[in-house]
Write a structure and sequence with these properties.
It contains 16 helices and eleven strands. The chain is an alpha+beta fold and about 500 residues long. The strands form two sheets. Strands 1, 2, 3, 5, 8 and 11 form a six-stranded mixed sheet that branches. The longest helix is centred in the middle third of the chain and has 28 residues.
């Protein structure tokens, strides 16, 4: 992010690290190529930060009445506005074709038209106190665990769930007021009170005439989506009304990213009175099964491998990684696989690898006959000496999963199981085919030549004994794209699938 403004204080430093991924994720949806996505994200992020500074308000502070959206949706709006500027200036060739059509439609004009005609969710969120609006957005759209939200906003983890329920009701009331203030047809006004009553009560049955009206009236259907707090539709209403084009695809990306963090050992939402307790237990069970499978694989690998000598010096290279990568590298692929705005097209990958397909497959990291290096680089090398006795068994296990690959790029996920409890972690490996990593999630990457080091984020540093963590990245390659080798975790060799 070399072109971005330099953070002025601790608040802005936190803003950069917490919000950049969200901005780049939406910019990637809005563009037809990854390099263009980076350019759009840079310009929009710069615009958003300057706007926040001009308002003279704390980017994270609680309290005052909002004069704008919370920080993340404000930055996402900057992406949308920057894309609109590109299109208006005749520079929209790099934008997604569907977005270009939308930018020239009446739907886009609503966001710059008279305030009372703008989407109800946008007006309702903007009308809330900023601290409440931020809590709602982080929990519903960004899908962050409540413990993480509480820590970020300085709230009590024991009461944040209750506060969130109150904020949801406040958002509903603001949207109800916005719907009443909207210029409506006479028929719509006649249904306004009934719509409020039906959506307020979870068990209320929707009258047939109201159902028919909602099926044919877009403004009332939009209001109904914002007024219904039950059924999990609130996040979709927020994303669709505030983010606008591609909102549901963005929502799906953020949810999948949150699932990866939770599966990788990030702080969960479980706690007294937390409705997500059962889901967290399910994730814990899956994590336990993954750890057990990893241990079995380590035993099987140790029994089957013969000593081939020591590694060829890759361990020393791990200490030469000095170039930090604070954001996705500018060498990210310029021709990513095609996608649409539908949520199903998101490329964020869950922790558990999917079954093998023609383009999504798990490959063994054991080098092929033509592969440079020896098998001992990925297994525990025998200690030198006349007896040839092997060193201690690895205490970690790495599964490298190639999620997708195209002509000059690829996407991969790494899942690491550790026998020992960790308070911090750093995973290193070697590429032999000139691969270079770019956008990375749930880890901070550094690359020096062929050696790559991925360090833990603040939220996934701690890993329980026999637990696992995962992260993913997009990279570039030229020609061959063999699996990486010589994995080490905190300097110790790791076994591989």
């Amino acid at each position: 992010m070399s072109d971005l403004p330099t953070p002025q204080d601790a608040d802005e430093t936190a803003l950069f690290s917490e919000c950049w991924d969200a901005v780049l994720s939406y910019a990637d949806l809005c563009t037809a190529g990854s390099m263009t996505a980076r350019q759009l994200a840079d310009e929009a992020f710069t615009l958003g930060v300057r706007r926040l500074r001009a308002e003279g308000t704390s980017v994270r502070g609680p309290g005052r009445r909002a004069v704008r959206l919370p920080v993340v949706p404000e930055l996402l709006a900057a992406v949308r506005e920057t894309a609109a500027d590109w299109e208006g200036e005749g520079k929209g060739q790099g934008l997604d074709p569907d977005l270009r059509l939308w930018l020239n439609s009446d739907a886009a004009a609503r966001y710059s038209g008279p305030p009372l005609t703008r989407p109800i969710a946008l007006r309702g969120l903007r009308d809330m106190p900023e601290a409440d609006a931020t809590l709602l957005w982080l929990a519903e759209v960004e899908a962050l665990p409540l413990s993480v939200v509480a820590r970020r906003l300085g709230l009590d983890p024991q009461t944040v769930g209750t506060e969130l329920d109150q904020v949801r009701m406040l958002f509903r009331e603001r949207c109800h007021r916005a719907h009443r203030d909207t210029p409506l047809e006479a028929e719509c006004r006649s249904y306004a009170r009934l719509l409020d009553a039906v959506t307020r009560s979870p068990g209320a049955e929707e009258p047939e005439d109201l159902s028919r009206h909602l099926a044919t009236c877009a403004p009332c259907a939009e209001a109904a989506a914002c007024l219904r707090l039950q059924g999990g539709a609130l996040a979709s209403a927020l994303a669709g009304g505030v983010v606008a084009w591609g909102g549901l695809a963005y929502l799906e990306r953020r949810r999948r990213a949150a699932e990866v963090r939770l599966g990788a050992g990030a702080p969960g939402r479980t706690g007294p009175g937390d409705p997500d307790r059962d889901a967290s237990r399910g994730r814990a069970v899956r994590g336990g099964l993954l750890a057990a499978a990893g241990l079995i694989s380590v035993v099987a690998l140790g029994a089957s491998l013969m000593p081939f000598g020591t590694s060829d010096g890759d361990e020393a290279a791990a200490h030469d990684d000095q170039r930090p990568v604070a954001a996705p590298s500018a060498t990210r692929p310029s021709h990513a696989p095609s996608r649409s705005a539908a949520p199903a097209t998101t490329r964020t990958i869950p922790v558990t690898p999917a079954p093998s397909t023609s383009q999504t497959r798990t490959r063994r990291a054991t080098p092929s006959p033509g592969h440079r290096g020896s098998a001992s680089a990925t297994a525990t090398a025998p200690a030198p000496g006349p007896t040839g006795a092997a060193s201690h068994a690895p205490t970690c296990h790495v599964a490298y999963h190639l999620d997708d690959q195209w002509s000059d790029g690829f996407q991969a996920t790494l899942t690491v199981t550790t026998d020992d409890a960790l308070t911090d972690w750093q995973l290193a490996w070697t590429f032999d085919d000139g691969q270079h990593i770019g956008q990375t999630w749930d880890a901070t990457p550094n690359q020096s030549g062929t050696r790559v080091t991925a360090s833990a984020k603040s939220y996934n540093k701690s890993v329980a004994a026999h637990g696992s963590f995962a992260f993913g990245f997009v990279g570039t390659h030229q020609g061959a794209n063999d699996d990486p080798r010589a994995f080490t975790l905190n300097g110790e060799n790791c076994a591989t699938d």
